[in-house]
Amino acid sequence: MSYRAPINDMTFLLKNVVDYNLLENTSYFEDTSLETTVAILNEAAKMAEMELNPLQSVGDQQPAFLENGVVRTAPGFSDGYKAIADGGWIGVAANSKYGGMGLPLTIQNCVNEMLNSSCLSLALNPLMTQGQIEALEHHASEEIKTLYLPKLITGEWSGTMNLTEPQAGSDVGALTTKAIKNDDNTYAISGQKIYISWGDNDFTNNVCHLVLARLPDGVQGTKGISLFLVPKFLPHHDGSIGKKNNLNVVSLEHKVGLHGSPTAVMEYDQATGWLIGKEHQGMKAMFTMMNNARLGVGAEGLGTAEAAFQKALTFAAGRKQGKTLTNETGTIIDHADVRRMLMIMKSKTYASRAICLATAVAIDMSNASQEEFWISRAALLTPMAKSFGTETGIEVSNLGIQVHGGMGFVEETGAAQYWRDVRVTSIYEGTNGIQAIDLVSRKLMDGGDAAFNLLNEIQELITSDCNNITGLNEDLKSAADILTKATQWMINCEDLNERFAGATSYLEAFALVLGGYYHLKGALAEDQSDKQIKLAKFYLSHVLPQASQLCKTATVGSDAIYGLSVDELSMA
Fold first, then answer.
1. What is the pLDDT, as a whole number, of residue 467?
2. CB–CB of 56/417 below 8 Å?
3. Cα 65 to chain center, whole Å?
4. How far lies 435's CA from each of 173, 298, 444, 532, in Å?
5. Rounded distance between C-alpha atoms, residue 337 and residue 241, angstroms
6. For residue 472, what pLDDT is reported?
7. Can you tell me the distance from the alpha carbon of 349 to that of 206, in angstroms, rounded to the nearest whole number?
């Protein structure tokens, strides 16, 4: 069975779990009904299933390559990209003033999930462009917006993000790329950037790079960084393409996965660029793009998890091996351990999808209302959506290999590609460790108000009438109570390194409890099915208990972590 978009699962969550209906009550999104949304998603599903999914293995087996300084993409990728662009799927959430659909980011997130499931290597291209569109909408001059946004939204041009340098990875403030102001108010950009996803291609007319660089009077660290738009080809005022800019792709990385997505080393030699935002405030503008991208990367993990689960389920339902004790089908899907793995895969994919959609709704509500409640909710959920989404993608694709057994280790089944492709998502756009540090530091600077507001909502659901599924609320209550205590510990702990030592465990625990909340909420929905209740029971009894131990680990401090000295670590 090839990939099938989970429209029913998405619709159920939008209707019953993540409060999507709130968007209709705003003037910003008043025309966004669930019925209209489902119709849009069904059209995107057709494109993803028919146009993109056949390219999944092609991009892996016939990777992008560099030929005389020109990037050549995998066979069929040009047509696949055209299908995305022609359908308007790049600009779903972009401003209608410049040609976008002006729809909620929540719809964009659902569309992106389907693209990611179908062909993650190609889907990464429009994700980068979407982030650039948002950054330009918020920070660019009207002249830049008018010239660039229509081209980016239609997909005629594509966009990238240039942060990383060999000596400046997560420590962006250590970058050395320079910018010198020219007499015509443009800037000359010089330096090298690495790990540039889709740094070039052979199917768009222009590639527009957002580049972080430092002006001569820029102080050291992130406070001295500015952001510049540096196109591959210098456009004329009417949008037509002019001469090539002074930038080049030096090489492409050889990677574990995502072979169809060219990851470039970019060289800028006094390339012409335009300032985006104000001088020395580049990180503010870049974070607009990065926050969008972090949710998008969470959806990459989610999309991969869904596709890996579907492949494993199909294999397990058809593979006969050994005698099964239940003898329901006679295939390995009847074996208890195989069924356990499939249930983990399905229940955690549900939790991940719910967290990503809840994050998207919070972002949409913050844009529509400008209320501090929603701004804080979106900020709190973003690192969890990114981290839990990607970790779920890694875990589920790894389990998918295991379900396939020996055939999972053989490339022809395609099971291993999901793991290879998704593995980097826990690293780029801010490692998951950085997401966790962000959660226990910046996101708790409000005294925990945003976190406690969410925990209070969980408690309110727990105390509601659970009707015929009594028992599920007790499982969630136990985990939520321990998480509340861990949250208070984080707030009271003044030593940041003590917090950081438990940050990853805390984030995972919070996300697991959120997953339990969304499972229970779904199980209590008026139009829930017996299937939804059974899935919730599994998650709350088999997955959620891990949260309690993670909270204990999160609050134990750093002594054990630093127990061995550097010398002792290196000794045999």
1. 53
2. yes
3. 26
4. 18, 12, 13, 30
5. 58
6. 78
7. 36
* pLDDT tens figures, 315-331: 999 888 877 777 777 88
Active site (annotated) includes residue 429 = yes
Residue 422 sits at the vertex; the CA angle it makes with 153 and 358, to the nearest 5 degrees, is: 60
Which architecture, in CATH terms, is 431-558? Up-down Bundle (1.20)
Give which of 82, 110, 135, 134 is closest to 10, Cα–Cα: 110
- Our separate counts of H helices and E strands in the chain read 19, 11
* Residue 181, strand partner residues: 187
pTM of the full structure? 0.95
Rounded distance between C-alpha atoms, residue 537 and residue 294, angstroms: 30
Residue with tokens 């709190």: 380
| Residues lower than pLDDT 50 in the chain | none
Catalytic residue among 306, 391, 395, 429: 429
Q: Could you report how far apart the first and last alpha carbons of the chain are, in Å?
A: 49
The CA distances from residue 58 to 71, 75, 80, 404, 480, in Å, are 16, 7, 12, 21, 45
Residue 523 structure tokens: 């199980």
Q: What mean pLDDT value characterizes the chain?
A: 93
Indicate the helix (H) or strand (E) that contains 382.
Answer: helix 372-404
